[in-house]
Write a structure and sequence with these properties.
3 helices; single chain; 13% helix; globular; 3-stranded antiparallel sheet; 7-stranded mixed beta barrel; 35% strand; mainly beta
């Protein structure tokens, strides 16, 4: 299937992750023209690069159509897609259908680990009601199986089959 990579982001720090019960932080999220992927480690320069062995969220994807619905139906005004703090904003695929699957994107292989579940911070980052709206559509966490570079643009996404069983255990 054909998909479009609309936006690519990295951040060198955690604003929300691991901060339950604390205030959020102010690390910027930087839009990039390309992302350098390292198999088994993540995205060079990103806060989750080499976070832990076999980490299930080496890269995160967010559906552009869901972003537009949050912007139009929840925020009802301006909203930058960077507010979701996902690495890749993608259009043209149901991300939940990639959970537990091996897939390629621009020749780079991934495994879809699990939903990148929304957290209570979404209401602070976007608007009240965002968390509730995003339940079941918070994005996709994935593992990177090949080194490579992703750039914005139109690509072929191919589902190769089921992911190894370790993804199903988490």
């Amino acid at each position: 299937m054909q998909v479009t990579l609309k936006h690519l982001y990295i951040s060198d720090g955690h604003n929300y992750f691991g901060r339950y019960g604390k205030t959020s932080l102010g690390y910027l999220i930087d839009e990039k023209e390309s992302l350098e992927l390292v198999a088994g480690k993540g995205i060079k320069g990103d806060r989750f690069f080499d976070y832990e062995e076999n980490y299930k969220g080496q890269i995160t994807f967010f559906d552009h159509a869901v972003y537009e619905k949050v912007r139009d139906e929840v925020v009802k005004g301006e909203l930058e897609p960077s507010k979701f703090r996902r690495n890749v904003i993608i259009d043209g695929v149901d991300l939940n259908s990639l959970i537990g699957k091996r897939f390629t994107l621009d020749g780079i292989e991934f495994t879809g680990s699990c939903e990148c579940s929304p957290c209570f911070w979404m209401d602070e980052a976007c608007a009240d009601g965002t968390l509730e709206f995003l339940v079941g559509k918070g994005g996709l966490r994935a593992r990177i199986l090949d080194d490579g570079e992703l750039k914005t643009g139109v690509y072929n996404l191919e589902v190769l089959g089921d992911a190894p069983s370790r993804d199903e255990e988490e």
